[in-house]
Design a protein that fits this description.
The protein is of the alpha+beta class and about 160 residues long. The protein is built from three helices and twelve strands; from the N terminus they run E-E-E-E-E-E-H-E-E-E-H-E-E-E-H. It has two domains: about 80 residues; about 70 residues, no CATH class. It is elongated and about 55 Å long.
Length: about 160
């Protein structure tokens, strides 16, 4: 099936916390879920709109071609869906029964979560950024582990 690329502006309204209504030319759809096809490497390009059945209805190649209002609605909805707390400090990592329990300070307060495997659930990048996936499939981000405190780096050095 060929993709339906949106080339003009979309007039979208927020349907709820993570969905939008889409009007573009002959395309009029309600309650669509926007999803980034490349959420980590290229978050502003190739946004797919999925219906309630999970089928793709349309794709927009670049959100910068949208009007300010449409882009603001779309970015707001995706910010809610792709909420990734930033880890500001690692307070403790405790290994028990083959799982690592992390206690961290984020911009949303102190959090604790478990990691199944540091090899598959922790992804360091060359620029110092680290993405972490916990056992409940939640994601966390360290913007640059090299800027963390000495105590935090000590914990991180055991994992990355």
């Amino acid at each position: 099936m060929a993709r339906n690329y949106i080339t003009g502006d979309i007039v979208n309204r927020r349907a709820d916390m993570a969905r939008v209504d889409l009007d573009c030319g002959d395309l009029h759809e309600k309650d669509l879920s926007p999803r980034r096809l490349f959420p980590i490497t290229d978050p502003d390009h190739y946004i797919s709109f999925l219906n309630a059945d999970g089928h793709e209805v349309a794709v927009i190649a670049d959100i910068h071609v949208l009007s300010r209002q449409s882009r603001a609605v779309l970015e707001d909805v995706m910010k809610e869906y792709y909420l990734i707390p930033k880890i500001l400090e690692v307070l403790e990592i405790d290994e028990r029964f083959g799982m690592n329990k992390w206690t961290v300070r984020t911009e949303r307060g102190v959090q604790s979560f478990q990691i199944r495997s540091r090899h598959s659930d922790i992804k360091p990048f060359a620029d110092g950024r680290v993405l972490i996936r916990d056992s409940n499939d939640n994601r966390y981000e360290i913007e640059d582990w090299r800027t963390h405190s000495k105590a935090s780096k000590k914990w991180l050095n055991t994992q990355i």
